[in-house]
Amino acid sequence: MAMAVLGLMSGTSADGVDGVLVKFFGKPQKPNWQLLNSAHYPYPGELQNRLIAVGQGESLPASAWLELEAEITRAQVECVRLTDPEGKAQLVGCHGQTLWHQPPQADKLGTSWQSLNAAALAEILQKPVVFNFRAADLARGGQGAPLVPVTDQALLPAIGGWRAVLNLGGIANITLLPPSMGPDRAMAVLGWDCGPANSLIDLAVQRFSDGSRRYDVGGSWALQGQVKEDLLQSWLKETYFQKPPPKSTGRELFGRPYLDQKLKELQQAGVELEADAIATLTAFSAAAVAGDLKKHLKPIELLVSGGGCRNQALMNELQKRCHGTWVRPLVDLGIADQEREALAFALLGWWQLQGFRAGMPSVTGAKRRGLLGQLVRP
């Protein structure tokens, strides 16, 4: 039976909420789907600043945490009104806003905090809401992230070779989909967080512009600079980039303190121009992705989504560093850069209602496959 589902996603860039309204029908494992509408609700600048600050460890009194949760929930509601003005959705899958992500370490389970008052959201919308998607995977010993690779497998067709799907949000995360033929066709889907995508670039732009610019529009600032390649290569030797998958990360690692260290190293290396610093940080994001693909598995195609695909400097660096791979935007397949992850959480919400076990141990390292998300009704 067909169902209209609303998917909501607000990522580590903390720039706002992406929404999609989509109809799913057919078999859960490989559903048919029709995108009905999409919209973006931008966070006010002050809210974005607070989210970035707490995502890097800034402490707040309990009352401020509760107010922040309420503001995040209100933003989800506003995105719903933009995405589904006629109220067609029968279910909402909402990721919430990640405030802190702590992957498992040694014998300790990981934890991840996606702020959202799901009960209030369900009551305001008078619709069931599925939320808290990462908790079950973390409880099973997994990373809790990335969760989108399993939806990529369901929504995108296989091709004659390995196909990669890259999201360039605050963090770069990648999916590797097995080919439709040949000896690798029975292999499991793979995926992990490669490292920073826009997080460091955005913070650098905000600093250099004294807050007048939120990000490098079109990559124009980076395109004016020169990459400090030797320093970039030394950064790739750091611990996170040497870890094998499964792995996940966020602003907890790639935030302001990390940027401060990188800018200090650039200055010590004689880099004085702000454009050169931004160019090097941009190339660093692309080099982390290319390095992972070189070490693990080379796809024939790399489909790019997220805000970073509108950064021409970043796309140029990906094309240059991913030798022999066709790099192109995911929108070529009919999914716009801001729609992919919201579409994923719509599907994850639908799967939870269907009782379909969406957890993917090959990606997160969880002990077993299982249900993801919790359902709350108005």
Largest sheet: 7 strands, mixed
Order of helices and strands: EEEHHEEHEHHEEEHHHHHHEHEHHE
The radius of gyration over CA amounts to 20 Å
CATH fold node name of the largest domain: Nucleotidyltransferase, domain 5
CATH architecture of the largest domain: 2-Layer Sandwich
Task: Determine the number of helices (DSSP H or I, runs of at least 4 residues).
Answer: 14
Distance between the termini: 22 Å
CATH superfamily of the largest domain: ATPase, nucleotide binding domain
| Helix-strand makeup class | alpha/beta
Text of the CATH class of the largest domain: Alpha Beta
Number of strands: 12
Detail the poorly predicted runs: none
The domain count comes to 2
- Mass-distribution shape: globular
Strand-residue proportion: 15-25%
Mean pLDDT: 96
* Percentage of residues assigned to helices: 25-40%
Task: Characterize the structure shown.
- Helices cover 38% and strands 21% of the residues.
- The protein contains 14 helices and twelve strands.
- A hairpin with a 6-residue loop joins strand 2 and strand 3.
- It is globular, with a radius of gyration of 20 Å.
- The two termini are 22 Å apart.
Notable characteristics:
378 residues; 2 domains; Nucleotidyltransferase, domain 5; 5-stranded mixed β-sheet; alpha/beta; 14 helices; 7-stranded mixed β-sheet
